[in-house]
Design brief:
heterotetramer, A: 83 residues, 5-stranded mixed sheet, 5 strands, B: 150 residues, alpha+beta, 5-stranded antiparallel sheet, 4-stranded mixed sheet, 4 helices, 9 strands
Chain lengths: 83, 150, 150, 83
């Protein structure tokens, strides 16, 4: 599974992305975030305020119950501030 | 047309291209967003605009397609810059051409409102005190909310 | 700034002048009106725009001043042509610059809506069937009516 | 009193304006239009549909009860169609 991080999530994690293989029972966006918090203290800190984290699955905005699968591109980022 | 680029753009040339050789366009509305020196964070020395390559183009194309569904548009243009920008520099150009002026004006406003809340861009502001990621504005969400269908 | 002229105008140069050297402008909204080949009268060969010299400048200045009272504007520009124009030619440019995008977008729409119903211009359309003065549109009155204060 | 005519009012009257001296009891826009109808058959025809005629006194839109005075610039024209 390809993880991408943007804006302050990238800064806090110290990387723009990583390849991770969550266990098979991680089936939704919410479960993925729960699992990510266990990966490292930096992940736990970056995801502490869950309301400030938006998720896209394969480049589409995704709700917490959206399914995630092994080949997916999952991006984590704060609410957008463009334009 | 959707374009993402580091470089500045020529507003006059971009707009002229939309209407050149056509006689079916009655109104051309446009909006240019620029970097302001004064922000809530204080005096800005620079701003860096980060985006999500791939998803940004996809979302902008979807927003433009939605505008074309809602209004009778002859053409639509979105040019959005990314990277480090100084105060006074152009950030974004949105332009809509239609046979009717209200369609051009309304769809231009719709595109910039949606772009602000839907397109994956993030602003990092630099001031004398350091760098800070800009927090999303509730007023931007409200502006976009107006266009949501019941 | 208000300008009435026979000659065409350079949209890019006009817009650049509004923002050049400034770092307090966050949004620049503009509208360009053009001559359409197809109108209710049929296929247009040309259009002549007549105005009331003196009163036109006065009304446009009043409309621009009203916009400046309602929105925090950094600058306002209205360039309006008169005389004989062919399909595809530019008729009018309205541009508003503000620190905030909503102020720029709303005031631009306000100016063009009011200009349509308040400024003394009359269109004479030429088709193969002859020349005809255009009748005022109820939809233009309605668009202007939105901005009237209670 | 300086009269100006625009658009089809100019075409119908065959002139862009004229200098006229209405009698002293012509004190309002409405009274001026009534008197103008008596000036010539062309004036009468041009003013036949009063709802289609707008008036400006000294370059400001004026209602039927607006006063008119000898030195005024009075313009007659159809509803505007600019922009």
């Amino acid at each position: 599974m390809k993880l991408l991080y943007f804006a302050w999530l990238r800064s806090k994690l110290g990387k723009a992305g990583e390849e991770l293989n969550p266990p098979a029972d991680v089936a939704t966006v919410a479960q993925l975030l729960d699992w990510l918090e266990t990966v490292s203290p930096a992940h736990k800190a970056a995801l502490a305020d869950r309301r400030a984290v938006r998720v896209a699955v394969n480049q589409d905005y995704a709700a917490p119950d959206h399914p995630v699968r092994p080949g997916d591109e999952i991006a984590l980022f704060p609410p957008v501030t463009g334009g | 047309m959707i374009r993402l680029q580091r470089e500045d753009f020529d507003v006059g040339a971009e707009l002229d291209r939309l209407t050149a050789g056509r006689t079916d366009i009655g109104g051309l509305a446009s909006f240019v967003g620029l970097v302001r020196a004064r922000t809530e964070a204080g005096a800005l020395t620079a701003m860096t605009l980060e985006h999500y390559p791939g998803m940004t183009e996809k979302r902008l194309a979807e927003i433009a397609a939605e505008a074309a569904r809602r209004w009778p548009l002859a053409d639509t243009l979105i040019v959005h810059r990314y990277g480090r920008l100084s105060p006074g520099e152009r950030i974004v150009l949105v332009a809509t051409a239609s046979s009717h002026r209200q369609a051009a004006l309304e769809s231009c406003q719709f595109l910039i409102d949606w772009l602000k809340t839907q397109a994956p861009f993030w602003k990092l502001e630099e001031t004398a005190a350091g760098s800070q990621w800009v927090a999303a504005r509730v007023t931007d969400d409200r502006a976009a909310e107006r266009w949501r269908k019941p």
